Amino acid sequence: MLVIKDLKARVEEKTILNGINLTVGDGEVHAIMGPNGSGKSTLAHILAGREGYEVTGGEVLFNGKDLLSLSPEDRARAGVFLAFQYPVEIPGVNNTYFLKAALNALRKARGEEELDAMDFLELVKEKLKPLKMDESMLQRSVNEGFSGGEKKKNEVLQMAVLEPKLAILDETDSGLDIDALKVVADGVNSLRSPKRSVLLVTHYQRLLDYIVPDKIHVLAGGRIIKSGGKELALELEEKGYEWLTDPAKVKA
Amino acid sequence: MADRSSEGKSVTDMDKMKLENFPFEDAVQFGTASWIKEARDKSWQRFSKIGFPTTKSEFWRHTSLDSLMKHYFCWGRVERPSVDVLDHLRSLDFDVEHSDVIVFVNGFLVRKLSKIGDLPDKTVMKTILEADDASIGSAFGKVLHEENRPFAALNTAYFTDGLFLKVPEGKILPRPIHIVYVTTDGTHKCQTHVRNLLLLDRDSSANVIEHYLGENIQSYFVGAVTEAVLSRGSSLTHTKIQQETDLAYHFGTLSVRQEEGSKLTSRLFALGGTLGRSEVETCLAGHNAECLLEGLTVAKDHRHMDIRTFVDHAVPGCKSEQVFKSVLDHEAVSIFDGRVLVRENAQKTDAKQSNKNLLLSKKALVYSKPQLQIYADDVKCSHGSATGQLDEEAVFYLRSRGIGKEEARKTLVYAFAGEMVQRVGENGLKAPVHKLVNQAMGWEGEAL
Question: ipTM score here?
Answer without folding.
Answer: 0.95
